[in-house]
Design a protein that fits this description.
- The chain has 183 residues and is of the alpha+beta class.
- Helices cover 34% and strands 28% of the residues.
- The chain has 6 helices and 9 strands.
- The strands form 2 sheets. The protein has a 7-stranded antiparallel beta sheet, covered by helices on one side. It has a two-stranded antiparallel ribbon with strand order 2-3.
- A hairpin with a 2-residue loop joins β2 and β3.
- The longest helix is centred in the middle third of the chain and has 18 residues.
- It is globular and about 40 Å long.
- The N and C termini lie far apart (44 Å).
């Protein structure tokens, strides 16, 4: 009708809650925790010890507790936690440390591990064949992006392969972004 005004209720958009956590680590520290130099010496001589997985586990449990995740909610992140351990271990072994960033969203988790090492010498597809851990990370991820030596690779859906998709400004080291959706 002419002159009649219609008012539609404004649809309220629910704000996405993001819980973001970061930790830097190297051969002397994991966040604020100092690492015993003897432990690092043993690690570099090939005598592996559990300090890095322990440090990542402790940090993981702290951030889950901080976000008040219940035990059943934590379980859905178990394999993501395994991927976090693998990516953190690789960053330490191949470059001496880096940064881990974990973002919890209501329906997904994003894990980014960056380092300043030499990056991937080859295409990440050949690296995955040699290193079972990275293959596992790729297999479990819904999205996986690897940036290294000026190139950006992304997971191909339904395949174990990564496809070079673009250039990146990361020329030294690498940045691996793992995304798992929980829908």
């Amino acid at each position: 009708m002419e002159g009649e005004m219609h008012f539609f209720p404004k649809l309220e958009q629910k704000e996405i809650t993001r819980y973001e956590h970061r930790v830097d680590f190297n051969q002397a520290r994991f966040g604020e925790e100092e690492i015993d130099p003897k432990i690092i010496e043993n690690w570099t001589k090939g005598r592996r010890c559990g300090w890095l997985p322990r440090a990542i586990n402790d940090w993981w449990h702290d951030i889950c507790k901080e976000n008040k995740f219940k035990a059943n909610e934590r379980r859905k992140f178990d394999k993501s936690h395994d991927c976090l351990l693998e990516l953190g271990k690789n960053a330490f072994e191949y470059s001496g440390g880096g940064e881990i960033k974990v973002i919890f969203e209501p329906k997904k988790i994003i894990i980014t591990v960056s380092d300043n090492g030499s990056g991937f010498d080859d295409n990440p597809n050949s690296i995955m064949v040699e290193h079972h851990g990275l293959y596992f990370v790729n297999k479990y991820a819904d999205e996986l992006i690897i940036e290294t030596n000026g190139k950006k690779y992304s997971k191909v859906r339904g395949s174990a392969s990564l496809l070079e998709i673009s250039e990146t400004d990361i020329m030294n080291g690498s940045k691996i972004t793992f995304i798992k959706n929980f829908e």
